[in-house]
Amino acid sequence: MHIDAPFELVLFGGLGDLALRKLMPALFLLHRDGRLPDGKIYAVTRREMSRDDFVSRIESSLKAHVPSECLELQPLDTFINKVFCLTMDVTDEAGYQALNSVLSQDDINRLYYMATGSDLYMPICKGLHSAGLIKSESKIVLEKPIGHDLETAQAINDTVAQFFTEKQIYRIDHYLGKETVQNLMVLRFANSLFESQWNQHYIDHIQITISEQLGVEQRAEFYEHVGAMRDMFQNHLLQLLCITAMEPPAKLDPDAVRDEKVKVLRALKPITGDLINANVVRGQYDSGVGEGQPVPRYRDEPGVHAKSLTETFIAAKVEIDNWRWAGVPFYLRTGKRLAERTCEIVVQFKEIPHSIFPLQHKNTMANKLIFRLQPDEGVRLMLCEKRVGPGMNVRPMNLSLNPSNQRQTRVPEAYERLLYDALSGNATLFLRDDELVEAWRWVDPIIKFWTEQEQRPEPYTAGSWGPAAATLLLAKDGRLWDENS
Ligand code: BG6
């Protein structure tokens, strides 16, 4: 799909953390690569500021977050000419009339991007509607977390649906825009080799890890109300699980893909009552080391309550009740201030039934397929080979599945891909309303249980791999987290 008609992008939360760190850099890179058509980008903010101050904010965010070799002068200048600051209070309907006077009066390709807290989605939609700003070519992008629980997510779905049709709504999860996630779909559905093995007969278990070295940074106000479950698990981790576990869609179109993902979410075995403590580990970082420096505990971070019960780590054993996956646990974990920044999906195949070779440790040498999303993207298959020399000794080896001729190509940022898709009207990598609801339906009892119990998350040392209970979660099943790759 190609965008050729002019566009307008109205970015609510236009000078917020997400806009400056991810969205502006992604838009700049699309522009630099000649992929953005003619258009205007309006950064909506409450703050009054001069054009010079605004431009210097945008330039410094690009300098900080775009690889220096991509920051050539000419595209930088032409990009800045496309970006405008719009001061308005989004909760005041009067501001939308002013917005109307700035935007094109034609029904052009217009994207409203909600880079704000989801509590503002309703007033913004109402304001846009009241000023007649929602036309047939308008689209809306909703950032996660959408809602605070099942009830609020449903309420947001219902409100947004009063003003936009489902085809105009793009619920973003930037992990779906990562190159390796799409490669996972290609490897699964463009090859016959893996599909025949992709089930409970051959797979022992699957691990999905998203670990960060960063702490809460300056985002305590947001994070204190959200925690790792709403920030990472309900969306990014469950989406990665869906792409890994879904049935082959009949075609690569938005509804075919989303139908299959929603079936996975509906087949997740509920974790409720006593099962919660047995299957879900909740942690909060203590002081320790972060990126080589001593760092404070979460409760001592600026803006965090001294007795905060917010979790910064989750590990869970998740099961899918269907024919393909019965009996195959999916171990999911995510956390801040962990030992490394990484994101991996590890598909652990079953061990061979019988070894004829000496020194082949059946369990540690079972095949593994590893999809690495970051820091470097790539796919590896762990196989066994003969150790060169006398005898018939076996050793593990890694087969890199990255074609070398593609290594030179710059890997696009997830937001580049997704902004381009939203502008060109391709919703395949965005969530549908029912997917959002099913994901909340599954996590809701767990969140409610924690809220009722007022349980303190288990402390873990910053710079470690999380609480000991997360190691035990797998050890109980005779397994280990894959931490050596
Ligand atoms: C965001 C979360 O969705 O993802 C952040 O709100 C987190 O807390 C970020 O740091 C991680 O994204 P990435 O692409 O840097 O792994």
Distance between the termini: 37 Å
Each distinct ligand: 6-O-phosphono-beta-D-glucopyranose
Shape: globular
Q: What integer value in Å does the Rg equal?
A: 24 Å
Helical segment count = 15
The SS-based structural class is alpha/beta
Topology (elements, then pairings):
Blueprint (H helix, E strand, L loop, with lengths): L6 E6 L4 H16 L6 E7 L5 H15 L7 H8 L2 E5 L6 H9 L6 E6 L6 H10 L7 E5 L7 H14 L5 E3 L7 H11 L2 H4 L7 E9 L8 H4 L3 H19 L8 H14 L6 H6 E11 L2 E3 L17 E6 L11 E6 L6 E8 L18 E7 L3 E9 L7 E7 L13 H11 L8 H21 L4 E5 L5 H8 L10
The structure holds 6-O-phosphono-beta-D-glucopyranose.
Structural commentary:
With 485 residues, the chain is α/β, with parallel strands linked by helices. Strands 7, 8, 9, 10, 11, 12, 13, 14, 15 and 16 form a ten-stranded mixed sheet that branches. The protein has a six-stranded parallel sheet with strand order 3-2-1-4-5-6. The chain folds into two domains: 7-143, NAD(P)-binding Rossmann-like Domain (Rossmann fold, 3-Layer(aba) Sandwich); 176-475, 2-Layer Sandwich (Dihydrodipicolinate Reductase, domain 2). The chain has helices at 17-32, 51-65, 73-80, 94-102, 121-130, 150-163, 179-189, 192-195, 220-223, 227-245, 254-267, 274-279, 414-424, 433-453, 468-475, and strands at 7-12, 39-45, 83-87, 109-114, 138-142, 169-171, 203-211, 280-290, 293-295, 313-318, 330-335, 342-349, 368-374, 378-386, 394-400, 458-462. The structure holds 6-O-phosphono-beta-D-glucopyranose.
